[in-house]
Please model this.
Amino acid sequence: MSTTTAGPSVAWRYGRPALVLLLAALAVGVPLWLVAVTSAKPQAEAIKPNLDLPGQWQPGSNYENAVSQGQMLRGFLNSLLVVVPSVVLVLILGAGAAWVFARRKSKLVSAAYALCISGLLLPPAVITIVMELRQLGLANTRPGMIAVYTGMYLSTSIFFMTGFIRAIPVELEEAARIDGAKPSRIFVRIVLPLLRPVIATATIMVMLYAWSDIFYAFFVLGGGERATLPLNLYQVASAQLYLNNWHLVFAYVVVMSLPMVAVFLVGQRKIVSGITSGAVK
Amino acid sequence: MADTAIRTRRTRKQLPVEGTRKRVGRLPRAAVHHPWWFALPAIVVFAGFFLVPNLLNFYYSFTNWSSYHPDIAFTGLDNFRTIADDGSLLRAIRTTLLYALLAALFQNGFGLVLALLLEDDSRFNRFFRAVFFLPVLISALATGYVFQALLDQDGAVNSVLGTDVPWLGSTTWTLVLVTLIHGWKWMGLSMLIYLAGLKGIPGDMLEAARMDGAGPWRTFWSVRWPMLAPAVTFNVTTALIGSMNTFDIVQATTGGGPAASTEVFNIYMFRIFGQGLYAQASAMSLVLFLVVVAVAIPLVVGLRRREQML
Model:
């Protein structure tokens, strides 16, 4: 390909899009196709999953079954009730801490910062989290789950936000201070609005992990009443009733994935710029 | 006259003293403008629900905490002896490290290739960047189920190829397959970060390389790859550390099997916790903590140093 100087550019001009199309079709197209066609098949056809079009189309009843039998609405609400407060807390608490960490310079501040971003690398101790929540009376509760998610993702938001605030000139704050603004006012009126791009990043990062988390939800929430969407999917897929009922599992997968895809499509540009600007620093 | 002269001298002397005393007594400027209490809630929540459980691990893994005892008593190294003797300790360490290594390799390899393919800012490329980002948005558990349906012996891949391969039934190769799925799931994120890294390379640098007669390969290895160092650091670190914490994909595809050949730490903890052996799970959790620390510290230090050298 790179033997002649003209070779690569010509071959590349046509070869690259062809390669991209091929890769996209194989790597993303095939799995998505499988999900789409299987979720529209009757059980007899779906038991051995394949890429054929359904012999008999019944997407309506499959999706209806997945929604009703899989307790989809309850799961959706449960997910919202833990993920949204977690995201809000991670953002607000993280922004406050990041502001202090970015602007103050002392050994103590750097030590506190280092400690607070240790969660980027360290694994959460999920077993003793259960123990602690039991003692606090927060086991199997939403506040317990929110506290755990917030603790887990604070490091990420503090890390991204501190880097971001350091790049904002202090003069903006000083101008407001000369006008007599107090720290809380400066924080709300100046720092938070400036953080908007990085807030988009932190939101999507936390959403990506928390919305699809099942491991920690298992330990903290367990099944039952407060089960989130992924927890429901797990129960649905492992229940005897659904064993090999791929048509219902995939109908569930489609409905469950739509909110994240929608969030991404709406905020695509911000999300992409946010993720990348925070990472490569 | 003399009095006044002395007095003035005194006051003059006192003034700076007073000034410095005032500065010492007053809160430093930083404390007024950026008070600690803004950071306090975050520190409290993080310490309370992240650091404290990790510290508790250092105690409860040395006890007999389980659903079979009403009370919790100190038992020394019993739990560690148990998991070492039944072979699960070494197996979990080996499986998890291998998983992390392969997953990071695949995720970064795929991500970098995609970034290089989709580098130019055309509409075509923007569309396909979104397409390759889709797997990141789908929950890992769902991803696992999709690939189970593809790779089952009765699954779609065998039906398309007309083969009868037990893809998820090999004690050697299934782990590699699961890490490939992990790489597939997260390649979109690595791709975005590599794209940002590529965009950050100054155009005249590439121009200069072209003027010097460097072909695409030479330009890549001599200019772009070194300039990508920060992106590599971020991607490799997050991929390695993140995949040591893996659970969903493994649980949904193999559940740790066949013959526990894909049983990473979190799968083991989940299984043992379900049996009510909490302290034993806590011991495993402590080992995971130590393994992550042992991997993370040299990794971060080494990659940072590499960035400075390149």
